[in-house]
Amino acid sequence: MAHHQMSTVAVSAGRPTEPGQPLNEGIVPASNFVLGGDRAYARDDGTPTWTAFESIAGALEGAEAVAFSSGMAAIAAVFNLLPTGARIVWPDDCYQGVAGLIADGERSGRWTSTRLAVDDTDAWCEHAGIADLVWVESPSNPLLSVADLVRISAAPRSATAILAVDNTLAGPFAQLPLDLGFDISVQAATKHLGGHSDLLCGVATTRRPELAARLRHLREIHGATPGTLETFLAARGARTYVLRAAAAAQTAQQLAERLATHRAVSLVRYPGLPSHPTHHIAAQQLRSFGTIITFDVIGDAATADTVCHSLRLIHHATSFGAVESTIERRAAIPGQEHLPATLLRLSVGIEDLEDLWSDLDEALNAAVAAGS
Ligand SMILES: *Cc1c(COP(=O)(O)O)cnc(C)c1O
After folding, report:
1. In whole angstroms, what is the distance from residue 92 CA to residue 138 CA?
2. What is the β-pairing status of strands 326-329 and 343-347?
3. Does the C-beta of 121 come closer than 6 Å to ligand 1?
4. Which pTM value belongs to this model?
């Protein structure tokens, strides 16, 4: 088949082809199938709905995809590939759920781990030689530091090493970790692929058939199966994913540039700004600088909270990757107290740029006025 661009792949993959079938695989609520065909029981063999979603998610990354009940379920499956006593190396800035998972396994003696600065490429390369799992999150959440995935994957690695990326923040439009030499790319389809804040779903993609088979086996024995309705919605979301991601990234770049000159803002972190500490890696490695911006408000936690509460269009809510823009003060979340108290994470949606800017500008000015 012709090689198509990602926007085309997102629309064309995972569709029924037999005459008379609907263009979209339907919602097939099933646990049990008539024996003798290729499906017997849904936890083992899937439903047609989640298989269709896996076809789309896999096609986006040119790989085999295994869908899970959530992003964390996909991540836990990757960690469950490890033998007891495994050595894990992971970033000093990352999704808090992963930090909890690693701490839990460490407490129970399942593995040991070392944290590295996202941008300390030499250290990552060195650890690839001794680790069983190199777990990278890039750009990292919420500080948006970019790891040099090309150099890390090219480093000499131990015989048992699995190199995996949490690609949730970037999404496949912005970054294709498997093309950069990694073994597994994981994403919460809850975020960009779903794109509408109405489902939980995760997906792991790999080009190594033995890893895909083991991940599928882990899903089966742990029962971490995706919901049929959720995968229908995720497939629906994925059809417009590339358009949404491109539009939101364009708006994010504009907003980041404007925020950087706002009198109420002390620091903007966005990989697309030349001032960003890892902009040079981002510019080489990312296909898009993404849709997430973090910035520090001048003042204190109360000032930053005033911004969140003064916004009228942008929703005060966690998570990211949806059509609607959301913002939150990350240090207010239990476990995230180490972050700057005034750090806000903005997820840019597909609303109009000027409408979003007016909302931000007014809220920032209101916070300055309240503080003076
Ligand atoms: C949201 C998120 C996850 C977990 O996804 P869930 O679907 O909520 O389990 C993992 N990693 C990152 C970076 C995330 O943002």
Report:
1. 11
2. antiparallel
3. no
4. 0.97
Give dist(CA 191, CA 198) in Å, integer. Answer: 10
Closest residue by Cα to residue 98 from 292, 289, 335: 335
Dig out the tokens for 194 from the structure.
Answer: 């779903």
Sign of CA dihedral 349, 230, 105, 165: negative
311 CB near ligand 1 (under 6 Å): no
Q: Indicate if ligand 1 lies below 6 Å from the C-beta of 327.
A: no
| Ligand 1 touching residue 188 (CB < 6 A) | yes
User: Which has the closest alpha carbon to 99: 79, 127, 70, 122?
Assistant: 79
Residue nearest to atom 6 of ligand 1 (CA): 71
Ligand 1 atom nearest the C-alpha of 72 is 9
Each residue of 61-98: pLDDT tens digit?
999 999 999 999 999 999 999 999 999 999 999 999 99
Establish whether residue 99 lines the binding site of ligand 1, counting it when its CB lies within 6 angstroms of any ligand atom. Answer: no
* Sheet of 315-316, strand order: 265-269, 292-297, 343-347, 326-329, 315-316
Q: Is the peptide bond before 139 cis (omega within 30 degrees of 0)?
A: yes
